[in-house]
Specification:
Arc Repressor Mutant, subunit A, 10 strands, 38% helix, 4-stranded antiparallel beta sheet, homodimer, alpha+beta, Jelly Rolls, DNA-binding
DNA sequence: CCGTAATATTGACTGATATCAATAGTTGAT
DNA sequence: ATCAACTATTGATATCAGTCAATATTACGG
């Protein structure tokens, strides 16, 4: 930084219409004029640095956020002071839904790396979605998708061995990244092993052992945060094995 | 039944305005005229008998349902044919949200006992909620509440001992029933132990042992489905104990 | 009323995973 | 470069909860 003169990049128009996540995000299915109206209410705050928070529990709920780049973890803090990681949020995913029902956020949203988001003032969004039917539909889709997907994963986890859980976790990340145009087989896990263990409900040591285990079986190459999936099908196979379940026969 | 003559009860008007669940349900906050418009789109199908289904996976998504009385379990069926119970739904709770994001239901909704529901054709509901802001707001609240509450429970379960999980489950049922004006300390569990175990991710035998355990410690009286909570605080204490967690210190 | 099937309970045994403990690698500040 | 703090890995041991097996209880159809 030898000069105080700021080099102005040609002003990049940050707009939904230019966004690569458009098809996964709220604008999906909207026409040009509708998109413009949505754009008017979308704010784009400055990027968060690692460990900066987007909101805290008890903060008044005003906005939903969509991750544009980077990643965010959300967690609650129990009365005894320990964290419960409630989710990891990748580009194109919504953050803030925990505030909708009570008008205040119930968890902390913290950037795992430098992260930029779009801010959607929720009440403006509601108003607008009352006027643009496609937006309302898409909002509902996103809301339920976000939460249902999580729920499915969590429920499955309950029945899985530690091995299967870690495999399922890797697959979840992999699939979500792929949907967003990233590699499905090579990525960085931005969260710590502790976060993963916390989220999956197992000890850090167990997470670590599973990574080692997968590596020894040549399913993945793992070097700290950097993960390369060598045998995606192998991982899928492992995640599918549910060692517990008997045969709860469906009634006719 | 000595006579074939049907005794006609004075036609009871089934309307949102008369419903005891009003304050927990969609009508919350609506005025008389708005309530009437909502009432116009609400259908009230004949009650389901035990083990009858409300919908199946792949059925086209058309409606949300609110349980009026009785109870419903939802479950998915894995490729290997076994069930994964995804939730239990008590009076005033929504069923069908799993269909919103993909336009087809992803699980089976099955009555655990004789159960009556209100049917809310979703697309009419969307249209109407575009016109009645209070309805839109309440719909969003309910959608997120339903799902977030579940998620919180499931996440916590991941970290809890079997004992704590069963305790938390009982508390969840108890609290939800209380909100609906039922007793918080005495109720029937309409689902089987197998269902509970499936939902909580543990073996039936373990569920059974925990019930026995709680009974021996005089926290509850349990006779099959019938549960009486003697020491609610005791149960709360147990559910709060999280034997795993270390102290993941929040960063400053 | 009886017999069959479904559901629930209890006991014995075993294995997966948490816990404790020690070490090693990484990151960032001075 | 050095140190401290954090993060990750690995090993040894204990324990919780799953599995298998047997029995008890309830529900239901004939």
């Amino acid at each position: 930084m030898t000069s105080t003169k700021v080099i102005r990049l040609p002003q990049i128009k940050v707009a939904c219409s230019e966004c690569s996540l458009r098809s996964l995000c709220l604008p999906f299915g909207l026409d040009g004029e509708e998109l413009e109206r949505l754009d008017e209410i979308v704010k784009r705050p400055r990027p968060l640095q690692r460990s900066q928070r987007l909101y805290h529990p008890k903060d008044q709920f005003r906005s939903l956020y969509v991750v544009r780049s980077g990643s965010i973890k959300t967690y609650t803090t129990t009365s005894t002071g320990d964290q419960q990681v409630t989710g990891f949020h990748l580009p194109g995913e919504l953050v803030g839904l925990d505030g909708v029902s009570t008008d205040e956020y119930s968890c902390t949203a913290e950037a795992l790396e430098t992260t930029s988001v779009c801010e959607l003032p929720f009440f403006k969004l509601e108003t607008l979605s009352g006027q643009i039917h496609g937006l309302q539909r898409q909002l509902h889709r996103l809301m339920s998708k976000e939460i249902i997907a999580d729920q499915q994963l969590l429920l499955q986890l309950g029945k899985m061995s530690a091995e299967a859980r870690v495999a399922a976790f890797l697959l979840s990340i992999s699939a979500r990244l792929q949907q967003r145009g990233f590699s499905a087989t090579e990525f960085n896990l931005t969260m710590t092993r502790t976060d993963i263990g916390n989220y999956l409900g197992m000890a850090v040591e167990t997470v670590s052992r599973q990574f080692t285990n997968f590596q020894e079986q040549a399913f993945i190459k793992a070097s700290r945060k950097h993960i390369e999936i060598i045998d995606l099908n192998g991982i899928k196979r492992i995640s599918g094995i549910m060692p517990c379940e008997r045969t709860p026969q469906a009634k006719a």
